[in-house]
Predict the structure of DNA-binding transcriptional regulator YafY.
Amino acid sequence: MKISRLISIYVILMDKKRISAKELANIFEVSTRTIYRDVEAINLAGIPIYSTSGVGGGFEIMENHKMDKNTFSEEELTTLLMGVSSIPDSMKSKDFINTFTKIRQFIPSEKLESTNIQSEQVQIDFNQWIGYRNLEPQINRIKTALKDNKLLSLEYISHSGNKTTRKVEPYQLVLKSSKWYFHGYCYKRNDFRLFKLTRILTLEIVDRTFIPKKYPKLLLDTKEIITNLQVTIKLRVHESIMEQLLDYCDYESFLKDGEHHYIVNFPFIDQDYYYGILLSFGNKCECISPPQIRTKLKEKIAALARIYEIAENTRYFSRVDESASVVA
């Protein structure tokens, strides 16, 4: 039983007049049986929740109930503050400030300093170190469209670089691995699609509402799929790139090989993206095995080298020089 879910259910019940077990189950992606257990736990904690059956029935908190400072423990309030504080800057608004202020009001004055210290012990920043694009205008438009059930019109770049114009019903904003997406029903494809915000060229709200569809749950936890595709390859790497490899495998995967090198068991999928990772290590990394991965890597290196052959460079730069002389 997750304490964070119990707190969230309590906050929802304080905000809403009545809500059904099925609605709560959909919100938290658990079974209705789990919701009933959660509600029972909340009741046992002294918060009076009762249920009504039939059409329009559901759970609600008894009238005149008020949240007091004893509702949450210091640890629970710290967890809430950490969770709220970790919201990306692009999602923060007046509602965020109000929520943050309300939570702080429940902290007893004598515990405020220690709670603040604990909540600041974990800092979450979703911004990249370099090359960060400001996606806040896009996110704000999508949030507005979500709230008002308005269509979005956008120009979108595909994986292969083709530009298409889409009209989409928005259903979810998604932050996955520090990348922003939105999930929506695309009229061009007649199906639900996941759109990456960095591949959106233009985005406008259409003055037209839509009746929301029941949308499928996104498969965001791909661990099982990746595990089935993954193989372990052996790399010989220079010590200078150990930091980069530790993003992908733990220290136990490294075996010392001479004074400045290591043999590494590296998790790998036979796809272009993963070959790109190996190539990014340059001459500090050599794939030792298996032979088929090593062979494919050699082919990709040879194809890359052909782009930079002297003859090709000469023809290209001669064309550049000619263009420059014309401009001059």
The CA atoms of residues 321 and 327 lie 10 Å apart. DSSP finds twelve helices and eleven strands in the chain. The chain has four domains: 3-61, 74-119, 136-209, 224-307.
